[in-house]
Amino acid sequence: MKKMLIMCGAGHATSTVVRAKVEDWLKAQGLSNKVTIKQSAVGDEIDNIKNDRYDIVVSTTVVPDNIKSKIINGVALLTGIGSDKVYDEIKKEIEE
Asked: Could you tell me which residues are beta bridge partners of residue 57?
């Protein structure tokens, strides 16, 4: 089972919206049983991300440069523009 983190600045508002969208998408794709999701604030998770505690990290906020390569930018899931690309990236990570 893959571990996914969805994070925003404070771990409440935008990450809640994105989490709901990702959970709905996972269910529609038949992938819900392959992922556990945690929701949090970026400041609380930097060390966990550096130490590879998550398989998939989706963020709706700016992240430090030293973890940027491990992050899927989830802003498109808020705007609806380019969301298919984000879902494709998530699916690729689930299937690896």
From this structure: 5
Do 72 and 86 form a contact (C-beta atoms < 8 A)?
yes
Query: Tokens for 38?
Result: 């945690």
pTM of the model: 0.94
pLDDT tens, residue order, the chain (96 aa): 999 999 999 989 999 999 999 999 999 999 999 999 999 999 999 999 999 999 999 999 999 999 989 999 999 999 999 999 999 999 999 998
Q: How far apart are CA 67 and CA 46, in angstroms?
A: 7
Amino acid at 20: A
Q: At a CB cut-off of 8 Å and minimum separation 6, what does 55 contact?
A: 2, 3, 4, 93
Reduced to 3 states (helix: H, G, I; strand: E, B; else coil), residue 44 is helix
CATH of the domain spanning 2-95, picked from 3.40.50, 2.60.40, 3.30.160, 1.10.357? 3.40.50
